[in-house]
Amino acid sequence: MTTLLDRRVPRPDEQAPVTAADLLPLLPAAVRAAGWSLLVVVVGAVVAWTAATATSAPLSASLRVGTDLWLLAHGADVVVTGGRVGIVPLGITALAVVTAARQVRRWAEDQVAAERPLPWGRAAGVFAAGYALVAALVALVSGTPAAAVDPPAAALGGAVLAAAVLGGCALRWDPDVAALVPGWLRRCARPAAAAVTLLLAAGAALVAVALVASHERVLLLHEALGPGLVGGLLLTAAQALLLPDLAVWGVAWLTGTGFALGTSTAVTPAAVQVGALPALPVLGAVPQPGPLPAPFAAVVLLPVLVGVLAALLAFRRDGTPATAGERLAVVGGAGALTGTVVGVLSWLASGPAGPGRMAEVGPEPLLAAVAAGAEVSLGMLLAVGGAAAVARYGPRRVPHRLTAPLPGGTLSGRAPRGEAAAGASAAGPESAEGSLRARWQDLRGRSSKRP
After folding, report:
1. Does the predicted TM-score (pTM) go above 0.90?
2. What is the pLDDT confidence band of residue 356, given thresholds at 50, 70 and 90?
């Protein structure tokens, strides 16, 4: 089966002019993209309401919960009585991204199959406008005095998500668009992407370890809610959608900055200071209040190790820049990109979670960004500096490709071994024979000087 990447994209001079027929299909595509993710969330909320036999809430309440969760996933705050809810459920956001990307891909494949142009810029505007319209209508229809979302905020969040998805698809599928990204940014993006991936994996592993270590408390909270079989499955699924947020919290904890679970609270590697928590079973994995053992402070070294591994993975593919200035530029840029991504994720995974003391939940975005960027940059500097030192002062043969140069030079300033051998061969057999004779005479002279 052929895909978009397998098909030939016509050159600009071969393409027909862009018409409304190229852009209008993106409007129903945006409706389908928003509709599918909304349907999944709403159906889940309705099934949970059906399984909760002890509830007296009407069906409309479950529908409103589903739509509110979907709008939250697009960055729109839900205004409730006495406060707001602003934490983005990143699991639902990922679902919305997947459904939007599928619709964009279908449109792009149709365009390529018909040898029509791919006007990504105008397509982003049309797709974002259609998606924003759906988000605004959902906010307008589902709003009640108890919980409401500002339609302009919902439209803005939907437009940003749709435009970001289409832009990402263009970068991935269209070489002409990817070529617009400056080379230095691509060089910095690869180690940064590796660092962010490793950090999130470490944060998710931390959450898994905490859940296993505190499984008794988690099970007690789950049983206290009495959700039943179906309700328990849905409760577990709902908490699974929050795992990406919890992984981001884990990243903030690993950087040493920690996260909050209410006003005047903090969960850090040094100590835990929390009050009464919501009856959410997964929060049973939070350590008991009080100081933590001193060895826990060593977890801040893990992001440094992540920086080392990210440099090894990224520079294994591209090679290390030849000059010290280029190395510092790549490490600094990759660290800044890593910190920026961590800061954005922390911003999305934090915010108010209701009225009262739950108005502050999650990591502090700026602190998490600065800490993650600095620690990862330190690890990358250690990796690059260590490789440069080995290449300069260590054994001549370095086993890792981290020391492989980019075109234009080597880390040590010497010619690669293959080039030296080629040069010796090019000099002719006479030069090689003379070199061997000189070396043999030198060895004889050293042996004659021995007592």
Report:
1. no
2. confident
